[in-house]
Amino acid sequence: MTSTIKNNVLKIQSLYPKIYFACHQDHIKARSSTHKVSNRDNIILAHLFEGNLSYNKELAQHLNVSTATMSQALNNLVVLEFVQYVVDDNDERRSKYSLTTKGQLALQDSSVLNTEKLTNQLNKLTEQEQLKVIEGLRLLALI
Q1: Which of 38, 52, 58, 129 could form a disulfide with 125 if both were Cys (CB 3.0 to 4.6 A apart)?
Q2: How far apart are CA 73 and CA 79, in angstroms?
Q3: Which of 49, 56, 91 minimizes the C-alpha distance to 71?
Q4: Domains detected in the chain
Q5: Are 77 and 45 within 8 A, CB to CB?
Q6: For residue 55, what are the contacts with CB-CB under 8 A and spacing of at least 6?
């Protein structure tokens, strides 16, 4: 590992707790939350948000769970109206899942980052700086 990489790793490790502290949401159990979203559900909603992983098998592989487990979780999210699906035009055995507006609200409300605190932090930045933050986090999340 080069010294540059070591230094960058340390920088990220020192920044993340500061972000977490500045924007952290108090822990809420799924049963008592507004949308009844579990941590696993939140992770699935987050992965569906951008639409890159929208098939059961892709999500299951990415999250290292069985397709049956993912299918059950997706079905529960469909019942809650957080997720919708359409049958794939090219392969009727597959369904493509996406987030509904209600699902986006559930994702936001169940996030570890408090909406108000995060909004306050972002308001301290210019729009261009905000986009840089989003791009940096997106790049790190997609690795």
Answers
A1: 129
A2: 10
A3: 56
A4: 1-25+112-143 (no CATH), 35-104 (1.10.10.10)
A5: yes
A6: 88, 94, 95, 96, 97
- Give residue 21's identity as a one-letter amino acid code: F
Number of residues written out for the chain = 143
86 beta partners: 96
First to last CA, the chain: 17
Can you point out the beta strands (E) in 5-137?
83-87, 95-99
Chain centroid to CA 80? 17
Cα–Cα distance measured from residue 29 to residue 111, given in angstroms and rounded to the nearest whole number? 12
Residue 137 in tokens = 């986090």
What is the distance between the alpha carbons of residues 98 and 43, in angstroms, rounded to a whole number?
A: 13
With H, G, I as helix, E, B as strand and everything else as coil, classify residue 50: coil
Report pLDDT digits (tens) over 77-118. 999 999 999 998 888 888 999 999 999 999 888 888 888 888
Can you say whether the dihedral through the CA atoms of 132, 138, 141, 143 is positive or negative? negative
> Comparing 34 with 17, which gets the higher pLDDT?
17
The answer to whether the predicted template modeling score (pTM) of the entire model surpasses 0.85 is no
